[in-house]
Design a protein that fits this description.
Belongs to the FemABX family. The chain has about 375 residues and is α+β, with helices and mostly antiparallel strands. The protein has 2 domains: about 5-110 and about 145-170 and about 350-370, Gcn5-related N-acetyltransferase (GNAT) (Aminopeptidase, 3-Layer(aba) Sandwich), CATH 3.40.630.30; about 180-315, Gcn5-related N-acetyltransferase (GNAT) (Aminopeptidase, 3-Layer(aba) Sandwich). About 35% of the residues lie in helices and about 30% in strands. It has 12 helices and 13 strands. It has helices at about 10-20, 30-35, 85-100, 120-125, 145-155, 185-190, 195-205, 215-230, 240-250, 295-310, 330-340, 360-370, and strands at about 5, 40-45, 50-60, 70-75, 100-115, 140, 175-180, 210, 255-265, 265-275, 280-285, 315-320, 345-355. Strands 1, 2, 3, 4, 5, 6, 7, 8, 9, 10, 11, 12 and 13 form a 13-stranded mixed β-sheet that branches. β10 and β11 (about 280-285) form a beta hairpin. The longest helix is centred in the middle third of the chain and has 15 residues, at about 215-230. The radius of gyration is 21 Å and the shape is globular.
């Protein structure tokens, strides 16, 4: 089928997303208001009957001194990634973006390539001979993603190198907890012993988890900066978070929530939760160095999980993990913490680039690497 791609309104885009069980929050028109330093455009795919059958949020970042831009669709577009004719879907997108002076296109396919159960991850961590999750036989394999990968390569798209290029982009590997058909008791029983013990410990210690508002973001940010210093990552500026709340709440008043865990009046953990349809994300988290023993991080995660279940979500997404299962790697703790929920590690087809002007593509790569 031949599709036609054209600009659509934010209202049309939001209505299309609402017709789907779940769409990444990075593919909502509201996300364009969060990424204010980028240009943006909502695109729609129309079939030969004029029906809107796909959509995507494009973010544009110009190369300084040039008219041309990188066109980026984070975790999108929302099209049929299981199609045997991806050329029919992506060809019109490429044509539209060429006319918009894009020097390169980056897309993010959320088709699942492989998945590993928590038990498989745990066994891999315990085996000193294994250092990478990618070397472990998966529990499930996505045939549609394999077909899509072959088509993308044939069409000239290429995946960015690991941890290289003009942006790290969105994580290709994530950890998620399936919620469909489960009760709170079943979810708790599916967690490992440490998680269950820590949730109970937080309750006995008197940790109280509540929802906050935009006015509580300065408290969140204080603990977030403490976490960044302790865990050695570069924090986002404070104004990013009010902008995120304002934009996402304007599209859906329950799209984003702030959770605060207090112990005897002290803020010990804080998190940001985002939901679109049946999918909820643990988007940002922070924990105080003091009072780690009251397990505020486990308490706030359990509250977000149970609230996601109550909201009708089928998936709770704990976001990115690294490929490591090496006991000597400092990143191992991240996957251990998330695997304790009893969910699964998932590898997406991920982000792919199509250079349209190779010289400018390389120049932008250099520019972004120098920006740090």
């Amino acid at each position: 089928m031949a599709f036609r791609v054209r600009t659509i309104t934010a209202g049309e885009h939001a209505a299309f997303n609402a017709s789907r069980p779940a769409v990444s929050f990075l593919q909502t028109p509201a996300w364009a208001s969060v990424k204010r330093e980028w240009g943006s455009e909502s695109l729609g795919w129309f079939d030969d009957r004029g029906h809107l059958v796909g959509a995507g949020l494009v973010l544009y970042r110009r190369l300084p001194g040039f008219k041309a831009s990188l066109a980026y669709l984070p975790e999108g577009p929302v099209i049929d990634w299981g199609s045997d004719d991806l050329a029919g879907w992506l060809g019109p997108l490429v044509g539209h973006l060429k006319r918009s002076d894009a020097f390169a296109i980056r897309i993010g396919a959320t088709a699942v390539v492989r998945a590993w159960s928590a038990a498989t991850v745990k066994a891999a961590i315990a085996d000193p001979r294994i250092t990478r999750l990618g070397d472990v036989p998966p529990d499930t394999v996505g045939d549609a993603a394999a077909r899509a990968r072959s088509q993308l390569r044939y069409l000239g798209w290429r995946p960015p190198k690991e941890d290289e290029g003009f942006s790290a982009g969105q994580p290709r590997r994530i950890f998620q907890l399936p919620l469909a058909g489960k009760s709170e008791a079943q979810l708790l029983a599916g967690m490992n012993q440490l998680w269950r013990r820590n949730i109970k410990k937080a309750c006995r210690a008197g940790v109280i988890v509540s929802q906050g508002g935009v006015e509580d973001l300065p408290d969140f940010y204080r603990v977030y900066l403490e976490t960044a210093k302790r865990d050695h990552f570069v924090p986002r500026p404070f104004n990013y978070f009010p902008a995120m709340f304002e934009a996402l709440s304007a599209e859906d008043k329950d799209r984003i929530r702030l959770y605060l865990a207090h112990h005897e009046g002290d803020l010990v953990a804080a998190t940001i939760w985002v939901r679109v349809g049946e999918h909820a994300w643990y988007s940002y988290g922070a924990s105080a160095t003091a009072k780690r023993e009251v397990r505020g991080s486990n308490a706030v995660q359990w509250k977000m999980i149970t609230d996601a279940l109550a909201a009708g979500c089928t998936v709770y997404n704990l976001r990115g993990i690294t490929d490591t299962v090496d006991g000597n790697d400092p990143h191992l703790g991240l996957i251990q913490f998330k695997a304790g929920t009893g969910g699964e590690a998932v590898e997406y087809l991920g982000e792919w680039d199509l250079p349209l002007n190779r010289l400018l593509y390389k120049a932008f790569d250099v520019y972004m690497s120098r920006r740090g």
